[in-house]
C-alpha cells in the first residue's frame, strides 16, 4: 500500500510538472507570435515600399481629381475624392500600389535566412497566418492612408470656397464605401502578388 501511495504521489508530481511545462510552452509561443506580429507590422509600415505605395496612391488620386471652377455645395470635396478613386489613374495604379508594401517580403526573408530563425520560434502555421495578414494589410493600409491625406488636402483647398451649410451624410458614406472597396481589391492584389512571387521564386513575379 505504501508503495502504491508513493507511486501515486510521484505520478501526480509528473503530471503537474508536465501541465506546468506545457502551459509555459504555450505562453512562450503566444508571446513569440505576438512579438513577431508586432515586428512584422512595424517592418512593413516603416519600409520604403509602403511609403512609396502611399505616395503613388496620392499621386493617382490627385491626377484623377476634377477641381471645381465655381462655388459648390458644402461637402463637395468628399465627392471629388470619391470620383478620383473611380478614375483611370487609380484603377491603373491600384495593382502596383497594393503589392509594393509587403508582397515580396517572404522571398526576401527566405533569401536572407530570416526564416531559419523565426520558424522554430513560432511555427510554420503561425508564420503563414501573420504573413497573410500583413501582406493584405499593407495594401489596405496604403489605400486608406492615401485617402485620408487627399481628403484632408481637398478639405483645406475646397471647403473655404464652398457654400456655407451642413455636410450631408451621403457623400461621406459613398467615399467610405469606395475606399473600402478599393482597399479590399488592393488586399486581393497584394495576396495574389505574394503568391505569384512565391510560385515564381522571384520578387519580379510579385509585381
Structure explained in plain terms:
The protein is mainly α and 207 residues long. The protein has helices at 2-45, 48-64, 76-85, 88-99, 105-112, 114-122, 124-158, 169-200, 203-206. Helix 1 packs parallel to helix 7 (124-158), helix 3 packs across helix 7 (124-158) and helix 6 (114-122) packs across helix 7 (124-158).
Order of helices and strands: HHHHHHHHH
pLDDT under 50 segments (min length 5)?
none
Principal-axes shape call: elongated
Query: Which percent range describes the beta-strand content?
Result: under 5%
Q: Taking Cα atoms only, what radius of gyration do you get, to the nearest Å?
A: 25 Å
Tell me, rounded to a whole number, the average pLDDT: 85
Q: Largest beta sheet, briefly?
A: none
Percent in helix:
over 70%
Q: Cα distance, first to last residue?
A: 73 Å
Beta strands, count: 0
Q: What is the number of helices?
A: 9
The helix-and-strand class reads mainly alpha
How would you briefly describe this protein structure?
This protein is mostly helical. 83% of the residues lie in helices and 0% in strands.
